[in-house]
Design brief:
Blueprint: E1 3-8, E2 13-19, E3 24-31, E4 34-38, E5 41-45, E6 49-53, E7 59-74, E8 89-92, H1 98-112, H2 118-137, H3 143-155, H4 163-168, H5 174-185, H6 189-206, H7 208-211, H8 215-221, H9 227-238, H10 242-248
Antiparallel strand pairs: 1-7, 2-7, 3-6, 3-7, 4-5, 4-7, 6-8
């Protein structure tokens, strides 16, 4: 897996002349909107649009308002499950701008010290490719659901987390978000939150001999002030109490 180049557009551009490459080009639009021409076809783009362009395809971009891009060239092929390998692959960055964050870091490290940071840049390139391929290998969720999932992952360890407030911040009615979340994931937002917390608790208990944490401390680290409520939710998900799970894993019951 080779990274040939990485860069950022110089200022805001209104057009990019038609051109082609002998390598794959991945272009992420970071601002502005317009139309890209790729192999004679036209594709709209806006902030967050990702275009993966196979070698040899003639492409260019136009925008009345101007646009800015991050991009890299690679020898690694990208293929959507239903894609024939001949045309471009167009998708969207997630609500947290994960690909943009990776590319921004790649650009910064590459230009700060091209030789000293090369190993890190190569690893970030591999991570960017893995992220793209993982998105293409599975169905992307509705952006509203993706955004709520991201907020829950960020804050599930906070005992003060208010799920209702998160739903209100979505810009849609809480009932609509709940229904959409359940339709897309098969679980409620509350069930997803509980799954995150109990999943993390299991990870901590699996390493309890190394971490030396009591059950109440583990519960607090997973977002539960009340140890009894934590135990009840843990049993609901796993079918075992924290004590039973710890004994099964060879851990020790420590004092509170």
């Amino acid at each position: 897996m080779a990274l040939y180049s990485i860069g950022v557009s110089h200022g805001t551009m209104t057009h990019a002349h038609l051109h082609s490459h002998t390598a794959w080009e991945v272009v992420l639009n970071t601002e502005g909107s317009g139309t890209a021409e790729i192999d004679g076809q036209r594709y709209p783009f806006s902030a967050g649009t990702i275009m993966c362009i196979p070698p040899g395809l003639v492409h260019g971009k136009e925008s009345d308002e101007g646009f800015a891009d991050l991009y890299f060239h690679t020898n690694s092929a990208i293929a959507a499950p239903s894609q024939d390998g001949k045309g471009p692959i167009v998708l969207q960055d997630d609500s947290d701008k994960s690909l943009e964050a990776l590319l921004q870091l790649m650009v910064r490290l590459h230009h700060q010290d091209a030789m000293g940071n090369q190993g890190t840049v190569t690893s970030l390139h591999a991570a960017a490719m893995q992220l793209l391929n993982s998105w293409l290998a599975k169905k992307r969720l509705n952006p509203i659901v993706e955004q709520l999932q991201a907020r829950l992952v960020e804050s599930f360890t906070d005992p003060e987390l208010n799920l209702g407030a998160l739903l209100d911040k979505s810009g849609y009615t809480p009932d609509y978000v709940r229904r959409l979340f359940h339709k897309e994931t098969g679980m409620t937002p509350g069930g997803y939150l509980t799954g995150l917390r109990v999943g993390y608790a299991k990870q901590l208990m699996d390493q309890q001999k190394h971490l030396g944490l009591s059950v109440s401390n583990i519960g607090l680290m997973c977002g539960y002030y009340d140890a009894r409520y934590f135990s009840r939710m843990f049993r609901r998900v796993t079918g075992a109490s924290p004590r039973e799970y710890l004994i099964r894993q060879g851990g020790e019951m420590l004092e509170q």
